[in-house]
Amino acid sequence: MPLEGYTSKKSVYARYEIIGFISSGTYGRVYKARSRLGEPGQFAIKKFKPDKEGEAQYTGISQSAIREMSLCSELSHVHVVRTVEIILEDKCIFIVFEYAEHDLLQIIHYHTQASRPGIPARTVKAMMFQLLEGLLYLHRNWVMHRDLKPANIMVTRDGSVKIGDLGLARIFRQPLNSLFTGDKVVVTIWYRAPELLLGTRHYTPAIDLWAVGCIFAELLSLRPIFKGEEAKMDNKKTVPFQRNQMQKIVEILGMPSKEQWPLLTSMPEYQHLMNLPAGNSRIQNHSGLSRWYWNIIQQQKYNNSSLMGVSPGNEGLDLLKGLLEYDPNKRLTAEQALKHRYFTMEEDKSMKNCFEGNTFEYPLRRITEDAEMKTQGTKRGAMDDPMPGRATKKIKG
């Protein structure tokens, strides 16, 4: 896909002043920046590592980076993080995004402190609505995200939710090979759909909706609903059965049945599923999920706190059931979820600002500042991670 209009020949250091370091991962590093050319607002700059970094011979840009560049340059929606430009420089790729002051994980952590109530019910509803609108846009344009989780859902200061980090996203229209062939493991373990855990070779955008259901549950409870331990691949890169993660799901949802999920027995890991300790669980028809849900509603005092607003109630439970449906063919689509009564109740107001009505403000994202970054790009390597042993300090947003 063409990148014309997004790539820049000007040095990243000439265009942007680096304010601080945000985070790092397998792909590279992310920094907060402001424009040196008078462009309004702030920016997040994602610097990709060269493929096989550290080798004596330069091996080029990673395939993952190329895919993310292609997708970011084509997508444009109010609830997907906007790509400002792409800069190719010094054997590195820099993707410049609009900056968001918060993410859902930070907001969840804010509310886990004992002195604070849960996330207001109206805030949860608006966040979910905007997240689903962004996801509907991706799916209508044949893009599967494949890594939805609270840390990848950004929220701006004015309450706009934006889907970020398309590093694992893929086009799913008429693929030349099954997506499993290219990436055998997708989605962070706690948000991974059961069909993925059971080893399916062909999956659909329904895996994103399962992750949305897990995020919904986490916004309500302030903790992951299925917090399993991941089994790592062995030296032969064999994908193991994620026994503990599947166990966590079965403990709440019960054991799936062939009647409930007709293609269940065709799953490669079906026999492993039958050998789970909870294999004889009598939980059926979402009764375990209902118990979990109403316990959470009671714990968070949705019905007794004026701050919380109206309880998510039966409508919230029904939406959660539809998103956490075992059979991906029966799971709600993004379009169906947006039409759910949870969102369409007459008394609900506009959901364009998820912070509307809140009597408090969330702290801004914290970033790291160090002496090397203060050079503002005047030295080569000013955007590298802080040097080992270098004193750093936290600065607000």
Give the count of helical stretches.
Answer: 13
Rg to the nearest angstrom?
A: 22 Å
DSSP E strands, number: 13
Largest sheet: 6 strands, mixed
Measured between the Cα atoms of the first and last residue, the distance is 34 Å
Arithmetic mean pLDDT: 83
CATH topology of the largest domain: Transferase(Phosphotransferase), domain 1
- Net shape: globular
GO molecular function: ATP binding; cyclin-dependent protein serine/threonine kinase activity; metal ion binding; RNA polymerase II CTD heptapeptide repeat kinase activity
Catalytic activity: [DNA-directed RNA polymerase] + ATP = phospho-[DNA-directed RNA polymerase] + ADP + H(+); L-seryl-[protein] + ATP = O-phospho-L-seryl-[protein] + ADP + H(+); L-threonyl-[protein] + ATP = O-phospho-L-threonyl-[protein] + ADP + H(+)
Organism: Microthyrium microscopicum
Protein name: Serine/threonine-protein kinase SSN3
What structural keywords apply?
397 residues, Phosphorylase Kinase, domain 1, 29% helix, six-stranded mixed beta sheet, Transferase(Phosphotransferase), domain 1, three-stranded antiparallel beta sheet
